[in-house]
Amino acid sequence: MDYKQKSLDLHKKLKGKIYIPSKEKITPENLSLVYTPGVAEPCKLIAENAKDSYQYTARGNMVGVISDGSAVLGLGNIGALAAMPVMEGKCVLFKEFAGVDAFPICLNTQNVDELINIIKNLEPTFGALNLEDISAPRCFEIEQKLKKVMDISVFHDDQHGTAVVVLAGLINALKLTKKSKENIKVVISGSGAAGTAITNFLLAYGVDNIIICDRDGILEKNSNQYNIFKKDLADKTNKNNEGGSLADAFIGADVFIGVSVADIVTREMIERMNDNPIIFALANPNPEILPDEAKKAGAKIISTGRSDFPNQINNVLAFPGILRGALAVRATDITENMKIAASIAIATLIPEEELSEDNFIPRAYNLEIGPIVAASVAEAAIKDSVARVSKTRDEVIKETKSLL
Amino acid sequence: MDYKQKSLDLHKKLKGKIYIPSKEKITPENLSLVYTPGVAEPCKLIAENAKDSYQYTARGNMVGVISDGSAVLGLGNIGALAAMPVMEGKCVLFKEFAGVDAFPICLNTQNVDELINIIKNLEPTFGALNLEDISAPRCFEIEQKLKKVMDISVFHDDQHGTAVVVLAGLINALKLTKKSKENIKVVISGSGAAGTAITNFLLAYGVDNIIICDRDGILEKNSNQYNIFKKDLADKTNKNNEGGSLADAFIGADVFIGVSVADIVTREMIERMNDNPIIFALANPNPEILPDEAKKAGAKIISTGRSDFPNQINNVLAFPGILRGALAVRATDITENMKIAASIAIATLIPEEELSEDNFIPRAYNLEIGPIVAASVAEAAIKDSVARVSKTRDEVIKETKSLL
Fold this sequence. Notes:
Oligomer: homodimer
Order of helices and strands of chain A: HHHHEHEHEHEHEHEEHHEHEHEHHHH
Distance between the termini of chain A: 32 Å
Helix content of chain A: 40-55%
Structural class of chain A: alpha/beta
Strand content of chain A: 5-15%
Number of strands of chain A: 10
């Protein structure tokens, strides 16, 4: 039986991948503690002191996984109802990989202002938010405005989860090829949610020569063809004012990162790159170039988005631990340093002596990763003064493991 | 240790009364079925056919417990954050008494239009909604508008849960006193959410002589002092155009139902009632008159809202089974007949030969009740043509028990 039918069978059997039990069995004795009249007591304390909500409710370990269904996987705008299996899946991964309770919310509107207003009013319910599968460029405005008005962490995984794992892979790829972030030319194909986030994140990390290509070729400075988000990207990148097609961009490049569409990269393009080319061909399910082809053209380091090739870029390496780390210290924001800390934590999960072309990104199924990423993210949140409580690395690791 | 401290200790120990596990343990093998790429398959089917959401997601057994924190227990407007312990408690009761997965959502706005807009856009996430602790008269407009625009059941428990259990108690009280619904005079003290709902519900059940009192005395027809909701109540009740105070209303009454404030009923008032007075003094925590006092004044049948007296009116007898019944047949609405069916189911849980003044309302902690109420509600939904699937009583009972 193929995996498609297996997935349908599993979903039909489960009728929903999550459920919501009580932590404590209800008895005739505790009914009046869990509910009226006893329940009034924690309510009164929280009314007096908002931060007591973390003592007496589930909020401190609760993430909302929120989508409008406008850009679901590679399926496009299939709507809120049809997005639910993905959101439930995400919630399962939060629980399994980082002990985070996560609840899926699919919203029946795609109006940006309505979405912002709805999501911001969910704040008392959650300790952090994971935005998911919201189309670009709408997702940029939604995330930016929510980050401004909300006092809890807001994380759009399609942007930042991908960017964090790409950087983790890149850190190890640079080690293997003995290149340094200051001296590489990076070509990024795709200026949607992932491409934009990867660009901004690599810039924040200190990569300064980045060329972005979309379907019309290289993003050029001073073009007046772009929306404000693309204009911002063009302004920040392409420091040598290059022009032309994707193929032109490959000349003298060290790294290619594709978050676009299948089969647009040829062997000839890779042959134009500097020595030891690094190829991240992440289009799903069919990459920009197949690993075998890339290798034949001289690619030294190859990564895809697929689990059937080695070195998969899989967001599950990042988002459970990142949000768990934010929750652990009640972070009010997810900063660039917190994400960089996550990338470094993921990269260093593979000891240097074990690094190789076939093993430079950890495998997705690894229960060790969540707690370690959480600890690094929490540490960075404390350093960046966005944490509302302080905890040591060991405390975050221990707490997270106890939730698994 | 008193129950208040016990409740705080329990809440602090649990840090939230609910959690959200995965139904299926994640393994390296099923990761690609639960999440990408396999998860795309149920998404595609739901996008083609909306009702497949009930096959492939948790929605079919998922209730949203939604509050704005504007009227929490007897605490008043303590806000969304402080309302969460109550909402979590409600979710626990849904699970324990009827196997329903319920998630608490506390919304950080008390603007009626905003609340309506937010809640209606949550529709893809839930199979039914339980509104909770929203102040009157705002709750009437919110519930009525949501019922109109939403395709799933919407139930405001503070109104209808209370009304359903009051009617269950009244059905048995009338049996014990050999009175009939057509020939009784009922005095209701309180015109808020509960008083309004009880009035409308008793009218729907066939009680036609109802007098409502608020703090200014009897609600009179043709007064222009009232908001539209109170005016509607006055128009529908007081068929003999009585006037005066609460004490005046007691003259010749058979039933008193208090959903107001402590200690406003005296022995003298009860002595003005017809033979075998029925007293439901439901103000919490202190009733309109204490049971001992009422008994001394000749009350035959006495109920309160408190668990330390017999015959407690407790919503937990109603809401888990009602919503579970609605979910079982994917009801698009909660009709008067569905609620009446719930009242009759609760009343008849006590066999006639066991009915007595000390035992005419079932005890709140009883795991038999949810499935039976669910079956009766589902049956009524099918009769009223608001069910989208058909199931027998036995199927609903069996399905509900399997979820407990």
